Amino acid sequence: MIQVENLQKEFKIHHINKTLHAINDISFTVEKGNFLGIVGKSGSGKSTILKSIYGTYKPQSGAIYYNSESFGKINLVCASPREILYLRKYEIGYVSQFLSVMPRTTALELVEQSLLETGVSFEEAHEEAVSTLKHFDLDESLWNNYPNYFSGGEKLRLNIARAVVKKPRLLLLDEPTASLDNTSKVKVRESIEKLKNQGTTLIGIFHDLEFMEGLCDEVFTMQKVVVNSIET
């Protein structure tokens, strides 16, 4: 489903005239329907890999080959903004620790919109949104409220709901259980297992190794770059 080859990403900090190396020569392959877990110390570049796949970051070199349903084999590093936006809408989902949404949009509307943008009817989007919010135990009194007033755990559960409701072909998970209690973690695991059984390919970052046990098909361990900055 996805093949990462010799990926390198660095960030230039102009005001101090330095270049920070985030990832260097990263390569791995994930077969269709499998779950790859990425582990490593903070600062080793785990999130940079996911953001490079999702198109948030553009690597300096390397390739990310994705087997798209619509475009066939496509190198995401070279994909156009239009292609990236299309893939985000229809094929690739991303869950981060943070929720960034338009103001004055309710929790229910956010999950509905995730499906409506793919072309399903409002009735189907509403039914799926209600079912998903119930699964993640988001109190029904919050459904018509704005997420700005939610706790960190409630925001994270809503973020996960928005991603999984679309049943993406590829789902990227960046610490999806970071601020969740044990009950909520179980709900997240159930959803991940369901998506995996339905054929979704997953790549996830977790510090909770117990959560990963029995869930991932393979684990990729990051090594922190020894020299993480140079004068430019």
TrEMBL record:
One Pfam family cited in the UniProt record for this chain: ABC_tran
Keyword set, alphabetical order: ATP-binding, Nucleotide-binding
Gene3D superfamilies: P-loop containing nucleotide triphosphate hydrolases (3.40.50.300)
PROSITE patterns tied to this protein: ABC_TRANSPORTER_2
Matching SMART domains: AAA
Domain of life, source organism: Bacteria
Keyword Glycoprotein belongs to the record: no
GO terms of molecular function: ATP binding; ATP hydrolysis activity; transmembrane transporter activity
ATP-binding listed as a keyword: yes
ABC transporter domain residues: 2-232
GO cellular component terms, A-Z: plasma membrane
PANTHER family to which the protein is assigned, alphabetical: IMPORT ATP-BINDING PROTEIN, OLIGOPEPTIDE TRANSPORT ATP-BINDING PROTEIN AMIE
Entry protein name: Phosphonate ABC transporter ATP-binding protein
Native source species: Ureibacillus manganicus DSM 26584
